[in-house]
Amino acid sequence: MGALTDKYCIVGVGETRFMKASNRTPLSMACEAVKKAMDDAGLTAREVDAITSFQIADSTDVANVAQALGIRINYGSVAYSGGSTTEALTAHAIGLIEGGYCNTVAIFRSMNGRTGRRMGGQAPGGVVPPSRAEGDAQFYMPWGFTTPAQHFAPSAMRYLHDFGASTKSFAEVASAFRYHAGLNPKALMRAPMTIEDHQRSRWVAKPFRLLDCCLETDVASAFIVTSRERAYDLRQPPVFILGGSARTYADNPAWNHSRLRPYLQAGNFARQRVWGMSGIRPEDIDVLSIYDAFTYTVILQLEAYGFCAIGEAAEFVKGGRLRIDHELPTNLSGGHLSEGYAHGVALVNEVVRQLRHRADDSCPGWAEGRHTYDRQAGCRQVRRARFGASLGWGTETRGSCLILRSASA
User: Fold this and answer.
1) What are the catalytic residues?
2) Distance separating the N- and C-terminal Cα atoms of the chain
3) pLDDT bucket at 240, cuts 50 / 70 / 90
4) Three-state DSSP class for 401?
5) How many helices (H) and strands (E) does the chain have?
6) Where are the alpha helices (DSSP H) in 224-344?
7) According to the model, what pLDDT value does residue 370 have?
8) 196 in helix, strand or coil?
9) At what angle do helices 62-69 and 26-41 cross, to 10 degrees?
10) 12, 37 in Cβ contact below 8 A?
11) What are residue 404's DSSP bridge partners?
12) For the chain, percent helix, then strand, then coil, each to nearest 5?
């Protein structure tokens, strides 16, 4: 096990609603999410002394959040970065606390991802701001690769070709997560989805159909990390951090499509360290969150972290295997595909709530942790939730993850 295993905890989680149009600033939403996480933990502004976040020129500075909430920070930073940053910032927080730089760290992501700057580059009104063809972009922009769906489509096509899989495996992922969203009052997309519904949805960038792609939402989400000693004095049962990886890269770190196996995700190069540090194995995981920018990114990460062998995930996900009450309950909030896109932070929050046995669903007694496990009544709490994981996607070549345990494990 790792030197810092079980020494640090996530103690508070919070978010705004997932919105199609917030009509708010990222600062306003960030303050709401961080304040809700503080209230969830039972912390005052004087007890939080560090704030970190990440953005892509689409959010707010931590100094503004600290000033608005009355927090004097001993450490503050904003990473200019995207997917998989959530888990990496958790590792940063542990290192900062361990080193004595601060005591309690709030991590947030706030963005108007639908009405503001969108991942495809559009601004409000459909205007596409100029982009610089530099770095990796000089190789793919001239070919018209400007959106995430276009970026990931070639490796997805290669995967389907090499392993003889079909897009029905993508449909299995999408329909499982939609089922979970139907149990989640916060989710934007709750209508049932069948395999046939997925297969009939329009193409976006082959092999991705509309229902393979995550939602674009206005939202802010946050959680709080502190030491084991402080955690026991707070409001909620602590969720312990067993280990993880922080921005691990593949053998060819540059994001390009000329790699021999472009679908070989960075988790393949992190998993031995991850599971060794955590002291558990993939088969011990009771609750899983996987960064689902696309259905395909779920397929790759299941293989990368050893839940199945390379090339086997398309078969592995069949028959509802990722659904609640089945073998590997995954993205129980509905994930980015159906709850809403919060750039990974809400995926961590869902695992935390599940490991507390306090999933915020429609079950009558959820606030007290007395779940019925009746799916017809809207309960999405997993019956046995001791160990959980959140797998963060950056690209095929970059990823992070976080392994967690409940206080009762």
Assistant:
1) 291, 341
2) 16
3) very high
4) strand
5) 13, 11
6) 228-231, 267-278, 295-304, 313-316, 335-338
7) 85
8) helix
9) 60
10) yes
11) 241, 388
12) 35, 20, 45
Query: Strand, helix or coil at 15?
Result: strand
Q: How far apart are CA 116 and CA 123, in angstroms?
A: 6
What letter does residue 202 receive in the DSSP assignment?
P
Domains and CATH numbers, the chain: 1-118+216-236 (3.40.47.10), 148-213+239-409 (3.40.47.10)
Residue reference for tokens 């020129």: 57
pLDDT of amino acid 302:
98
Separation between Cα atoms, residue 152 and residue 256, nearest integer Å: 10
Residue 126: pLDDT over 60: no
What pTM was estimated for this model as a whole?
Answer: 0.95
Instruction: Residue 281: name the closest of 403, 366, 173 by CA.
Output: 403
Tokens, residue 358: 């306090």
Cα–Cα distance list, 67 to 51, 63, 103, 148 (Å): 11, 6, 18, 35
Q: For Cα atoms 200, 201, 205, give the angle at the middle one, nearest 5 degrees.
A: 125
pLDDT at 138: 80
Residue 376's DSSP bridge partners are none
* Cα–Cα separations (whole angstroms), residue 296 to 38, 160, 164, 171, 392: 35, 10, 14, 10, 13
Query: Is the previous residue joined to 207 through a cis bond, with omega within 30 degrees of 0?
Result: yes
Query: Please, what's the largest Cα pairwise distance for the chain?
Result: 57
Q: Edge-to-edge, what's the strand order for the sheet holding 398-405?
A: 75-80, 50-55, 104-112, 218-227, 8-15, 239-249, 398-405, 387-395, 287-290
Percent with pLDDT over 70 in the chain: 96
pLDDT tens column, 145-171: 888 898 899 899 999 999 999 999 999
- Cα 46–24–289 angle (5° rounding)? 70
Cα 183 to Cα 92, 279, 338, 375, 381: the distances in Å are 33, 32, 11, 7, 10
Per-residue pLDDT averaged across 30-47, rounded? 98
Average pLDDT value for residue range 383-403: 94
Nearest Cα residue to 91 out of 3, 220, 221: 3
What is the spatial distance between Cα 32 and Cα 55, in angstroms, rounded to a whole number? 17
